[in-house]
Prior knowledge:
The chain is 67% helix and 0% strand.
Amino acid sequence: xxxxxxxxxxHLVLITSVVFMxxxxxxxxxxxxxxxxxxxRFFEGFCLAGITLSLYVMRIELCPPGRRFSVTxxxxxxxxxxxxxxPGLAALCRDWQVLQAVIICPFILMMSYxxxxxxxxxxxxxxxxxxxxxxxxxxxxxxxxxxxESDANGVLSELExxxxxxxKKTCIVKMVGTRNLWKNIxxxxxxxxxxxxxxxxxxxxxxDPEARETTMFHNFYADYYTMAGIAVxxxxxxxxxVGCLGRRGxxxxxxxxxxxxxxxxxxxxxLIGKYSLHHDxxxxxxxxxxxxxxxxxxxxxxxxAVSSLSIFFCAEITxxxxxxxxxxxxxxxxxxxxxxxxxxxxxxxxGYFLHHVIFACCTLICIICILLLPESRxxxxxxxxxxxxNYTRKPLLPPKKGGEQHLLLTKAExxxxxxxQETPARQAPPASAAAAPENTTANGVASS
Length: 448
């Protein structure tokens, strides 16, 4: 869906996904067997991915640099609000078919996006679709009652001169020919995979392996709202952290917190059971359970922040011409991280330990790789592949002020010494100079 958004436009992918979401979603409610239900749910999730991706890209491309993160966080809180409403709707509906119809019907309101949301003007200009861009500019100016005749900056006149150019669209495959851009996208894909994969490790560690019940409340609704509350707290913590440390600093901090929670859970709990409390088995199990829950909550909190920030980071540092495909790669990596969850159910719980160890190692690798990313706070979005390639990182620490002066002489004091080599190094001085009195030589040195 990301590649289609880059090729045909964000608006077309959004509307098409909404239409098919309504078709497949309402058809799921009339499923008669499991294969039919699973197949329709697959296509429903496919369309939901298209809606999520196209809306995410359009939000990023509509906002100025100072508003991108705040608008994205508002959208995240609305998504979490929908998750908090789900158990209440399920309790009211009682029937899964009624519940399916209830959660799909609001998508009918999204059909108004045909008129509410225009095509991304940034994407039209980046792909040289100047005729459509000109029409959209005039429409926006008319709605905002702006006089287009007083074009002080000369934007419309410059656009008129470029109307003869043909549209030029770029596929995500051309990213392979770059160096810096390819590296940035791969790092964010690994971050997203590790964040979503280890999130399920922490969620699984909160569950009793034998009773298959969570070890906190033994109640579905309490556990569900606890998980959602952790996600809400994670988004709340993201806002001040990213505001103070920036995108790269915030991602690095939450990844370090995730790695610490994972390593402490894997190592500290084994140390408690191996070297202490040999005789008091009940106390040892109670401590293990409490520490496991504490580290799992911290890990879920930080890994959710890592996942959200990796997706947002990718949308900011990738150029407009391939932003949909790049964001699709990061979201696909997140989905692959979630798909690794069944490995934890291998025989005798060995799969869970191996799964957790692998993702703990991935977090350590990600900590090093994050330092290679650029900082995108208050920066303009790159438009072309060349812009994305030139989007390089800056040092974490600012340069020192008033340091060593590299040029001891200023421009006015610079002298030409290019003819020094013309004089032999051991040439004897002239006879007149040798016979000159000493006071003349001294005066000459003093004057020079």
